[in-house]
Amino acid sequence: MRKVIVNEFMTLDGVAQAPGGADEDRSGGFAHGGWHMRTMADERAQRWVVQGIVAAGCFLLGRRTYEIFAGYWPTASVEEQAITEALNSKPKYVASRTLRPPLRWQNSKLLEGDVGTAVAALKQQDGGDLLVIGSIDLVRTLVAKDLVDELRLMIDPVVVGGGKHLFREDGTLRALRLTDGQVTSSGSILTTYARAA
């Protein structure tokens, strides 16, 4: 059975909204887009991100993340070749209520029907693990449906004081166990959590 692995960049106060750019997601009046990018100069952080992407069997993406990626990765620079090849060539499954097939980015397919049911079916298939990148709303749904097997969080030493938090305030206790942890030269913490037995 394949695992669902979530890869997120998160602030110290638990926000995962718009890590990559000022205009990535301004919903709710969020004004700190791009907060994560200064920490990506660290070699350890870059290696951690690339290894996760290259090791994935396929990708699960929400609509907003899919549209950002589809607009960038097909024509990304040669310097980003390791990530570019993996993202462009491997299957991508997209959760969206508004997109319609065919999707323009190669090897991309819309999830049909209920997201939880579709992802549970993907987990039963043969192949490499399913990696979710960004896609906060999708991650929240997968966590609520108990479909996430592993969380890979890069927690940056920054507080943004508001924005979309990775986890909903739903009153549910979810026990995790730390399977790996590293600290970068920029002070970010690279963590991997699995579901507790």
Class of secondary structure makeup: alpha/beta
The H/E string reads EHEHHEEHEHEEE
Output mean pLDDT: 95
What's the alpha carbon Rg, rounded to whole Å? 16 Å
CATH topology: Dihydrofolate Reductase, subunit A
Q: What's the shape?
A: globular
Distinctive features:
Dihydrofolate Reductase, subunit A; 5 helices; alpha/beta
Structure, explained:
Strands 4-3-2-5-1-6-8-7 form an eight-stranded mixed beta sheet. The two termini are 17 Å apart. With 197 residues, the chain is α/β, with parallel strands linked by helices. Helices cover 26% and strands 23% of the residues. The chain is globular and about 40 Å long. The longest helix is centred in the N-terminal third of the chain and has 13 residues, at 43-55. The protein has helices at residues 43-55, 63-72, 81-89, 115-124, 136-144; strands at 4-11, 58-62, 92-95, 108-110, 130-133, 150-156, 176-183, 189-195. It has one domain: Dihydrofolate Reductase, subunit A.
Question: Helices and strands in order, then pairings?
Answer:
Elements: E1 4-11, H1 43-55, E2 58-62, H2 63-72, H3 81-89, E3 92-95, E4 108-110, H4 115-124, E5 130-133, H5 136-144, E6 150-156, E7 176-183, E8 189-195
Parallel strand pairs: 1-5, 1-6, 2-3, 2-5, 3-4
Antiparallel strand pairs: 6-8, 7-8
